[in-house]
Amino acid sequence: MSSSRHLHQNKEATVYVGDLSDHVTEDILMELFIQCGPIVSLNIPRDRITNRANGYGFVEFSTAEDARYAATIMNGVRLFGSPIKTGSTTTNDEQLDVGAKLYIGNLAPDVTDLTLRQLFKPFGNLITCRVVLDPATGLSRGHGFISYDTFEAADAARAALHCQYVMNQPITVVYAFKQESKSGEKHGDKTERLVAPSALAAQVAKKVHSHISLLDDKGM
Length: 220
Description:
Elements: H1 3-7, E1 14-18, H2 26-33, E2 39-43, E3 57-61, H3 64-73, E4 78-79, E5 82-83, E6 85-88, E7 101-105, H4 113-120, E8 126-133, E9 140-148, H5 151-161, E10 165-166, E11 169-170, E12 172-175, H6 190-217
Antiparallel strand pairs: 1-3, 1-6, 2-3, 4-5, 7-9, 7-12, 8-9, 10-11
Protein name: Spliceosomal protein
GO molecular function, one term: RNA binding
Family: Belongs to the SF3B4 family.
């Protein structure tokens, strides 16, 4: 499936599957996720030059309910010894978001989502981790974004990795600009840090309640 095909998927019924081992194939993912419901499409994107898997994939179900169920019960399942990360493609970027979002710049063309995750995971719990791709070519635009569930983790990662060499290029690690800001404000300011604990607690409670309701609907 091409990158353009992914753009036409029903995002409400699509599950993002990350932290995939190089040994995981589309057939293996199909065998695992077909247990959750009928699958419309499944794709593990590959580098157009090397043909290596990028370490993540997308599974589109026939209904949004099946997708939510799969994202809930498959998160953390081990494939080839590594736990996979699953989430909704429509809400994954918002889960447990306290504003600890970093911009990663000057990335080499071969840096993938998996590369970034392996690099930044030791500093804390990653909520999102992605290299920005050109929708027309599927190639990296040379930058990406990651977010943690605490500012302490983001601060530690920024201090340790800013200007460090990754694939022979020094990367830039700084707090990302706020999308809603019109004055160039960046994440990581004093206000965000003050409200982070209460915001995180509220989001965790909402997420747990949602999962419990989903399991009740499934009769589990």
